[in-house]
Structures are given as C-alpha cells and as structure tokens.
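pinned: reference chain
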Amino acid sequence: MKVFADKLIEITERHAEEISEQWCKDIRINNRTPSYHVIPEEECVLQAVRFYKSLSRLYFSQRPSRDLYEYFMQYAEDRYNEGISCPEAIYALFMMRRHMWLYADSQALFLTPMDHMQAIEALNKTIRIFDLGTFFVAQKYDALKKRDGFNY
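pinned: its structure tokens
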C-alpha cells in the first residue's frame, strides 16, 4: 500500500495540468496578484505545471535544502524578470500549495485513520518545502534588487 505522501505526489503530478488551470483561474482574478492578471493564460498555467512536476524531486530529495534552494532561487529570478513583485510571487506559491491540497481533498484520499495520519505528515512536509521556498524567494528578490540598485 502506498503511503499518503506517495499518493499525494502521484496525484499532483498526474493532474498537474488540471490543478494548474484552476490555480491560474484564481490567481488571474485575485486582488493580491494583479501582475498575474495580464500574464497570458498559457504562461500562467505552465508556471504551475513546472512546479507541480518538480514537486516529486523536491519532496523526495536526498539533498532537500540544496534542491529547494536551486528551484526556488530560479523561481524567484524568473518571477522578478517577469516584473512580478516579491509579495505576489510568494502569494502565488501559497495558492499553488492550496490548490494542490484542494485537489487532493476533492479526490477523497483521506479515507482511513491511517490516511489521515499520513496526510498530516505529508502536509507538514509540504509546509516545510513552501516555508523554506518562501525564504529563498525573499532572499533572491533582495539580492536582485540590490544588484539592480534599488534601495529600501
């Protein structure tokens, strides 16, 4: 029997396009993410698909800090170069996490008490991934702004 984390990652990767489309619809109308309102839908969806397809590597990494650092530093640089503000880039990540869990919940993965325990473990690990990712994104934005001569 697969543990919940395996099921969660498998479902997320298998349905990355569908989850990403829902995420894109929400992010493109959310008041906290106005920069995303003008991004073409295909680009918006692709951004989330890339994340969801990378999740397995990040989640099960043998060197999680390094892999998370590399992924989220690149994510930050890409969003910065697209003109997305740091708060919007971070909020977009929060929404990616939320949509991943909303989709998993809609698939009734939480059936047994054991599933619930494994879901809590998977939730804690994904929160740690996103927390560390958020830190790296903020760190990279700070470095990019300093590089570009922006003073606070």
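why pinned: Residues 28 and 36 are 5 Å apart (CA to CA). Residues 4-144 form a domain with the Globin-like fold (CATH 1.10.490.70).
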